[in-house]
């Protein structure tokens, strides 16, 4: 929609039109955004540049959601999810599984607790422990 002339690129003027008119972003900020996205410095944002920026934004949002979820389960703010933490949030069982079994399944370091890196690795299906060693 920003590519008014349908050339597959977005010019500074096209970006300014949208960001200033619809979102009230100041011109100097619009210029900073434009030049950050114009990776080959040809005064146009190519679709690939725009797509790469959007993917990075989605990855950052995904990471934020994972961090928020981890913090929700880490009820004592210890940096780990323990059986006690899960019991506080979920009760003794979740979908028929005892919380002890849930922690044991995701506990890559085998120390009775789940670290944030272990939590992320478990959710992504990574078969390594917290230290990068195959589990």
From TrEMBL:
An example molecular function term from Gene Ontology annotations: calcium ion binding
Residues covered by the EF-hand domain: 1-25, 61-96
InterPro entries for the chain: Centrin_CML-like, EF-hand-dom_pair, EF_hand_dom
A family per Pfam: EF-hand_7
Keywords associated with the record: Calcium, Repeat
Protein's UniProt name: EF-hand domain-containing protein
Organism of provenance: Spumella elongata
């Amino acid at each position: 929609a920003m590519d008014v002339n349908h050339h597959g690129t977005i010019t500074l003027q096209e970006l300014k039109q949208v960001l200033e008119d619809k979102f009230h972003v100041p011109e100097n900020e619009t210029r900073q955004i434009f030049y950050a996205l114009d990776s080959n410095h040809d005064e146009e944002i190519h679709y690939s540049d725009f797509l790469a920026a959007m993917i990075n934004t989605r990855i950052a949002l995904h990471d934020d959601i994972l961090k928020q979820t981890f913090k929700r389960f880490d009820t004592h703010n210890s940096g780990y999810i323990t059986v006690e933490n899960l019991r506080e949030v979920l009760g003794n069982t979740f979908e028929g599984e005892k919380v002890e079994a849930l922690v044991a399944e995701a506990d890559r370091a085998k120390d009775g607790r789940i670290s944030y890196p272990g939590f992320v690795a478990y959710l992504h299906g990574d078969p390594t422990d917290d230290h990068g060693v195959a589990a």
